[in-house]
Amino acid sequence: MRCVIARFPFDLLKTEVQEAMKGIKPEPVTGESVLIGRRHYPVKQVGEIITRQDRRDFTAGEVTRALSSLGFVCRPAAALTPPAGLTPLETASALLGNPAGA
Hints:
The protein is an alpha+beta fold and 102 residues long. It contains four helices and five strands; from the N terminus they run ββαββααβα. The chain has helices at residues 14-21, 43-51, 60-69, 88-95, and strands spanning 2-5, 8-11, 33-36, 39-42, 73-75. Strands 4-3-5 form a three-stranded antiparallel β-sheet. Strands 1-2 form a two-stranded antiparallel ribbon. Strand 3 (33-36) and strand 4 (39-42) form a beta hairpin. The chain is elongated and about 45 Å long.
């Protein structure tokens, strides 16, 4: 699929992005994130790897739109912040998207 990131056109395939991220350790997520395989990566980290550009050259929104259109699940930073006052089991369950006890 053709997409534009930082004014440069890229032809990206979902399998190519997955292959590029194999063996890459995710950095701590502080902003928007994308789920690739079973790992959450910051979208800026993924954008840097797939475009080979400096992170300052593109926005998280550009990469998020491109990855979403490829079929990846993207989340805002707030989605990874667990609600306060939960037990460790409930916190882990909430981060995985399945509330404990439901």
